Amino acid sequence: MSGGEDFRVRVVEAENVTPTIRRLRMLRCDGGALPPYAAGAHTVLTLETGGPKLRNAYSLLGSTLSGGAYEIAVLRTEASRGGSAFIHAAVGVGTELTLSTPVNLFPVHHLARRHVLVAGGIGITPIAAMAAELSAMNAPFELHYAVRDEALGAFAGDLALRHGAKLRLYVSRRQERLAVREILQHQPLGTHLYVCGPERMIEAVLGDARAAGWPEDSLHAERFLAPAGGEPFAVRLARSGLMATVGEHQSLLEAIEAAGVDAPYLCRGGACGQCETTVVAADGSLRHHDHFLSDAEKAAGDKIMICVSRLEGRELVLDL
Ligand code: FES
What we know:
binds FE2/S2 (inorganic) cluster, 7 helices
């Protein structure tokens, strides 16, 4: 239950932009218009992989300014629970998929005096959309894009063509390092910083900005975590009395949905807080993996973000 409408779409373009990144362009099956969205928005794709349905969030490339089609870029990961591997192996031109109305948890703050965009790897997808939007609005920005290998720098060529000297590319195989402190040093007051990429990189960039005294409301990060796996356990829904088993590679949210209960969510990645659920009883320890609850809330043990967190134990009872 993302709070929006779902749409059937058909893939009209599919290409591997790098050996591990596949880009899909999709239009509505019924020929209607897809809802507009601003840079930084994501959509949730429902994937029917043959096993349990997977719902994965993907940042949208471009913005409403780029036209009616939706585009996403999907990284094939070793740790994939099946979603990215399925998209790489089985989704091509003509495939029909279901996606949700976009939600934007990572918007551009247009009142900012200047914008510093920092991306690592596949984190470029919302950041590239922001650069396109800022460029179209003639707003001052700079774009820093760190990749392991030049061949893996999806969209680097296109971004260089579009943004010229505003783009700085850092290729770690060439020993080029993102020097965050230097980048942040000479920014005018009122600059906003946006970062998306691997968790460690996000923490390092935000840590440097905080250490340099940047105000919290000028710092923006996009984190989508994959649900953590673990030993199966039982979940009981106190209001309905329903029982379900949460599989080794399944999230609590997915198990609850598979049992026919429409639980709330937006990001499905531990960031937005929408899926916060009250714990009635836990026969074991809660394993919190989200970025939403405070340390004190996690220690209290009476709330859980069901999209990414789970129980290490036998049975969890939720107020659902
Ligand atoms: S759906 Fe966003 S934190 Fe769970």
